[in-house]
């Protein structure tokens, strides 16, 4: 019930704030491409500070690449999300703060107003080994392609705009991959390197403007495995809030939560806040 309540809250909140767009009088673009680079820097320094504190330096780099294609009844959206972050703590060395690579591709054939027959593909993993530093010595908890998730399946897509869509795929195949070191974890049986599952997948994306110079982006994914405890939903939700300072500077807030019993028995949560450089390195529209 806790997971279902959280799911309903997330869907209602994103739908409530989604704003209606005026009909565009211009021709519908055939290609819309946007590549965005973001760098967020944080630094703390203490000298003879009686309250205490540790000197830290942290940097976080993110690259988002969006490709939107439209022609007659065909709609094809591809999004690449990748990021890496490090922090340096005085006396403790470097530690990861962010590590992500995700590819989403969604092909739709129009079947009605705002509705499409769809086929989606999702692949996600991380670049480098991660550790649980609460253990002594630190315990490895992930690595490149360990785990890696590949999901694909047919479904129905509701899409009002490039900034507002929900895809429902009731027959989604998912392949979980790990190295020999992590065999027996992430839902993979001991001695195996892969695990197959078949289930229900819901993915939604909403981006909207709350007020002038304040933009919110919300990405929600829900998965239920028919073959293994379907009542245990895997839920991932990331909300990005951007406060525009000028053309190239923005304040960034990220709230990222994950519920996945195969990865951890507890809710995973990541938060990022900082002033960052925002640069669109590839922006193109063709008709």
Description of the molecule:
This protein has a single domain (2-46, 53-286), classed as Beta Barrel (Outer membrane phospholipase (ompla), Chain C), CATH 2.40.230. A hairpin with a 6-residue loop joins strand 6 and strand 7 (139-142). It has 287 residues and is mainly beta. The model is unreliable at 15-24 (pLDDT under 50). Strands 1-2-3-4-5-8-9-10-11-12-13-14 form a 12-stranded antiparallel barrel. The termini are far apart. The radius of gyration is 20 Å and the shape is flat. The chain contains 1 helix and 14 strands. The chain has one helix at residues 2-17; strands spanning 31-44, 56-71, 74-89, 93-112, 115-125, 130-132, 139-142, 148-161, 164-177, 194-211, 214-225, 234-244, 249-259, 268-286.
